[in-house]
Each structure stands twice: as C-alpha cells, then as structure tokens.
Specification:
By secondary structure, this protein is an alpha+beta fold. Helix content is about 20%, strand content about 40%. A hairpin with a 3-residue loop joins β6 and β7.
C-alpha cells in the first residue's frame, strides 16, 4: 500500500461505524406504536395471518426495507400503512431503539411512534397479512417477569435431504479445513424471552425489542 492508497483508504472509512455485511442480511424495520388510553400507554401489536411465514406470531407492524424507502423510518411507516391502514400523518415518530442483528439472519430497525386514541377507529387490517390487532398496557410488561429459555443452535456444513442424500454446504475436506469442521459446530446458546398475555404469547425478536424498550426508561 503506497501513500496515495493509504490516503484513499482513510477517506473511505466510515465516520460512524455501521454493520459490516449488512447487504447479505434481511434488512427490515418495525414500528412500536404507543397509544395513551385513560392515562396509561398501551402498545399496539398485530397477530400475523396463519397462512403466511411465521403465521400466528405476535409482532409489531413492519417488514422488509425496499428500494423505494429512503430511510428505515419510511419502511416502518409504509408497512404500518399497508398492514393496518394507519397513515403517516397519524403517527408521531419520537425516536428509535438500537439496531438488532437477529440470529436468524435479519437486521431490524425499531422505530417508536405515538398514535392518538382516535387512530384505533381508523385501523383497516390487511387480512392477507394480519389476523387481528392486540392492545397491551405497558404496565403489563413492567410488572410481568418474562419466562426465559435457552436454545442451542449450531452450524451444519452439510445436511441430509428427504431422499437420504448428503448435501454439502461447505466443502470442508476439499478446502482442507480442520477436521473439527466436518461435523456441526458452534453449540451457541441463544436466550428466548416469553410473555404470556391472556391467550397470546409474545416471544422471539418482538420480546427482545420489548426488553430493550423497557430498559431505556426502567431499571430491569
């Protein structure tokens, strides 16, 4: 590397570090909708339609970042309009949480928005994506101790298909990598928080976001 190349490298370094490899992840944004009802804030959730991916899960409105979106805030607002019929003018954005890189290979940008109580009457659910909406008092999450489970996940360099054939994902032997990589490795622990509200279960990424949201103003 010569002096000119070093200078070019220096000028190309980010002023604020981002997320390396972001382009290979599923990039998305969600809206955390807060509504004040009778002096108490509630969080508006939605239950995903049963026939779609992750059907039946409780989540925030949101979805994939698309080329038409200039910011992740626009992604969250667009998806909220598509899924719940709530327009941008009825949402007051007050900020965002930290970026979450999920073990499932997704990056989620949580955006916080305030909705007026009257907005509830304007909700028009897209039944292709949403089964129903759920309002939960913020105090429930403040007072409820979540159940915590620890999962194990590991990396598999190969898999066996339905016909019993071995499908190679990483040619460990051909690349002459250490033998330890010829079998599954990693054994990483992954904590899962679970909240049960009446007959609904909130867990996974949504629960992680809730925990971070609570931590911003409450000692957990």
């Amino acid at each position: 590397m010569n002096k000119k190349e070093l200078k070019k490298l220096t000028s190309n370094l980010p002023l604020s570090p981002g997320i390396m490899g972001r382009s290979i992840y599923f990039n998305s944004a969600v809206l955390i909708p807060l509504i004040k009802i009778k002096g108490e804030y509630h969080i508006l959730f939605q239950k995903r339609a049963k026939h779609i991916r992750q059907g039946g899960d409780i989540c925030f409105p949101g979805g994939a970042y698309e080329e038409c979106d200039k910011t992740f805030e626009q992604t969250a607002l667009r998806e909220t309009k598509e899924e719940l019929g709530i327009k941008k003018k009825h949402i007051k954005i007050i900020g965002r949480l930290d970026t979450y890189v999920a073990p499932i290979g997704a990056i989620i940008e949580p955006i916080i928005g305030i909705l007026k109580k009257s907005t509830l009457k304007k909700i028009v659910i897209d039944t292709n994506e949403v089964e129903k909406t759920i309002l939960i008092p913020l105090s429930f999450f403040e007072n409820y101790k979540a159940e915590v489970y620890t999962l194990k996940h590991e990396i598999h360099p190969f898999s066996i298909d339905e016909n019993g054939n071995k499908e190679i994902h990483l040619p460990v032997e051909k690349l002459k990598l250490p033998k330890t990589y010829q079998k599954p490795w990693g054994h990483k622990s992954h904590k899962v928080w679970v909240y049960q509200y009446n007959d609904d279960v909130i867990w996974g990424v949504t629960a992680v976001i809730i925990n971070d949201f609570l931590a911003k103003y409450k000692d957990l």
